[in-house]
Amino acid sequence: MDRLTEYLFPKQVSTFAADIDNLFYFIFYSSIVLFAIVVFGMLYLAIKYRFKKGDDIRLTSSKDHNNILESLFFIVPLILVSITFVWGIRSYLKMIIVPDDAIEIKVTGQSWFWTFDYPDGGTTLNEFVVPSNQPIKIILSSKDVLHSFFIPVMRSKMDCLPNRYNIMWFEAQQEGVYDIFCAEYCGTGHSQMGAKVVVMKPAQYEAWVAELGSDDENIPLDELGAKLYTKKACNTCHTLDGSALVGPSYLQTSQMWGQERVFDDGSSTVIDDNYIRSSILEPQTQIVAGYQGVMPTYQGLLNDRELDALIAFLKSLEKDSQI
Amino acid sequence: MIENQKNYLTYPKGIMSWLLTLDHKRIGLMYLFGGLAFFFLGGLLALGMRLELAAPGNDFMSNDTYNNVYTLHGAIMVFLFIIPAIPGALGNILLPLMLGAKDVAFPRLNLASFYLYTLGALFTIYTIIAGGVDTGWTFYTPYSTTSTSNVIPMTMGIFIIGFSSILTGLNFIATIHKMRIPGLTWYKLPLFVWALYGTSLVQITATPVIAITMVLLILERLLGIGIFDPALGGDPVLYQHFFWFYSHPAVYIMILPAFGIVSEIIPVHSRKKIWGYKFIAFSTLSIAFIGFLVWGHHMFTSGQSVFSQIVFSFITYFVGIPTGVKIFSWILTMYRGQVSFTPPMLYALSFLFLFTIGGLTGIFLGAVALDIHLHDTYFVVAHFHYVMQGGTIVAFLGGLHHWWPKSMGTMYNQTVANICCLGVFLGFNGTFFPQFLLGLRGMPRRYATYDPQYADLHNYSSFWSAILGLSIFIAIMNLLWSLRKNNKLDPGTNPWGAMTLEWTHTTSPPHPHNFEEEPVLEHGPYDYDKVIVEPTFKK
Which sign does the torsion angle of CA B442, B443, B445, B446 carry? Predict the structure, then answer.
């Protein structure tokens, strides 16, 4: 990537990104030429034929057409837009024809987080793990209002509809962690509805997938909770070090265990196991004063053992901080 | 100088003579001040958004407040200012004068249009008082059918304003066909009239679609009938088709009158016959027509069929061609003329610069493959502001400065006006050019908070928006300040040496019945090669 591309665009990670950026440059340079003609032509004529102090008001030229010039106004833009159109469609076809050997991953948008369902079982929230150099087919839908799944480094975006599936695909060429945004307005938490795409080497991905489906039954509750804290994307809004993000820090909640917590409607309640459980399952009913009610419900996304695990993990934080 | 000469501003007197007036000029002025009030409100909302976006977090307002603010900014600017302002204000004041007519064809209908606009405006004000609306000005379903904010009053307001728009369009078409003085044939009409004709055709054909869409949305919310909400068996993409079938042509309702204004300003202030009269006139009509066939380019990521994508992309480029022809014609008009750098001319030149950027960036968005990356990012935000504000509003400000001495009979301070024009130009580019870069880098629109990687550009944009806002505010205050006492111009004033009927055959401000007697057409609107009209400017 040259320096201009680095300045203008996010990284070129997908196979078709470079082609799309080149289409951009074709339109960009053609536009600069046309724009220069317009601006310099305008300034040249305006200054050359300016009305100076002391000039007489006189009859001016009756010239108001020139067949050759006017034909050029039609023909040159017509040629440029024809090239743009054909290029735009050719690149578009590359973006929609999915290779046969693609891995199929189901992506669901919901106010305001993303769920990823992998082909061999296993689900992640707000973390989209894919292997590099392997086509990924994404089947998109929404559980409520419209969302739009946007990965700038892949130059790809598609709306998520509640009543039918949309399809997009990409093949990542570079390992790394990149942004995912929601690009269709969806309410209060729209600007927080981000996620990350993690591109791994295929071998690493295989190992990750194997672990994803592994049995969580046999590990202690607080360790499972620590795992779920990142796996279920709690960490995007809640920190462990006491600092406030979109939501209150787990550490702060843990340190306040047994004390009163005040909500934005003026009411308050004692922080205990039941409070934590209901804040996870029905986050909109009690909103901590000073924060916004943007947290989605985790109803159906966590089973009872997982809920217990998260509560145990939260309780353990205060003890750890004292050591 | 005849001190006691009647003009439409002072005769007849009394508040009722204004509220019940059938005079197109008074109705135009009421539209103008109504529109400017909403422009001010919409502008304050815009500055509030820029303040919030100056830094990444929720520093100034919460997500919900931001969502209300950006929705109201869009809805107010589009439906209460830009769409009614030029046809309703400048169109009403000027159209009959340019045709040599006493009034529009249906003066009572004209007053009814104004009151429908007022009623729609009241619904909007109610929406704001009742706590706002948070769906975006596009009201996409199913969010708009499930949102608990005041969707019904806002969409009801838009529904009512739609009728105002339809009736004004109808009135103008009848007026242009039937009220021209003898000898004023189609090719002798000022190009502003052609522009209003194209606009009116779009208004009467497209607006009913948004009206019925808003009704369906209201019925869905009230009665739960399933048209757009999939939970009730409806289809949200159907809503997008309905909405853009109006709202894309609405772009031309907003921009065509601006083309008309620029087509008047440039020949007059260059004292030169317009280049390619027929090209400009017919490109107006062809843009109005093609504008109906491209709505699908707003839906390139909605999952419509590949065939639709290709067809909509293809037709979209055909809007670009006639628009390009217009731009080149305006520039060539200055060739061998006598160009004066007056405030209206500076606005027209700014328009050419800004609108060309707006038009060219539309080509990027018309290419399907590239649009998929840019769709719903700040690139789109920057593009339509270059068209709507850099194009329409800059042309509107130019038109206000051009016809202000005609309609108000006073002259503003031209040096201040020129400085403000420069401020608008710099402030506008400083605000919106960085947004193209934000969009290319993937910053989605309608975000109250954002990733810190975008902070520098947002901060820069916010800084310049203050200069933009201040410049527009001072420019308008400068106009209003000219209305102070003892600042009247001589009624014979024609400060630019223009030769359309409103300048040559009536006083400034005009007589209550426009002309003392029916004007006789002596020359075409731009015959600077045949007739010398001396600029006259006396107090």
Answer: positive
**Hey, what amino acid is at A142?**
S
State how far the Cα of B417 lies from the Cα of B475, in Å rounded to an integer.
6
Give chain A's domains with CATH numbers. Answer: 3-50+64-96 (1.10.287.90), 103-212 (2.60.40.420), 221-322 (1.10.760.10)
Residue B4 has pLDDT above 70, yes or no: no
Roughly how many angstroms between the first and final C-alpha of chain A, as a whole number? Answer: 49
CB contact under 8 A, B325 and A74: yes
Question: What 3-state class would DSSP assign to A92?
Answer: helix
CB-count burial class (<10 Å; 0-12, 13-18, 19+) for B326: buried
Domains, chain B, in order of start with CATH, read 35-504 (1.20.210.10)
Q: Which residue of chain A has the CA closest to B56?
A: A191
What are the φ and ψ backbone dihedral angles of B445, each rounded to 5 degrees?
-85, 170
Distance from the Cα of A305 to chain B's closest Cα (Å) equals 32
Say if strands A260-262 and A268-270 run parallel, antiparallel, or are unpaired: antiparallel
User: In this complex, which of A49, A183, A184 lies closest to B338 when CB atoms are compared?
Assistant: A49
Q: How far is CA B185 from the centre of its chain?
A: 27
Interface test with B, best of A145, A154, A169, A287 (most B CBs within 10 A): A145
Q: Which of B87, B157, B99, B103 is nearest to B128 (CA)?
A: B157
Look up the ipTM and state it. 0.94
- Around Cβ A226, how many Cβ atoms within 10 Å? 19
Nearest to B338 among A60, A69, A179 (CB): A60
Separation CA A304–CA B48 (nearest Å)? 45
Radius of gyration of chain B (CA): 23
Closest C-alpha among B71, B56, B381, B437 to residue A192: B56
Q: In this predicted structure, which of A131-145, A241-255, B67-81, B476-490 has the lowest mean pLDDT?
A: A241-255
Tens digits of per-residue pLDDT, B363-405? 999 999 999 999 999 999 999 999 999 999 999 999 999 999 9
Residues 122-151 of A with CB under 8 A from B: 144-146, 148, 150
pTM greater than 0.95:
no
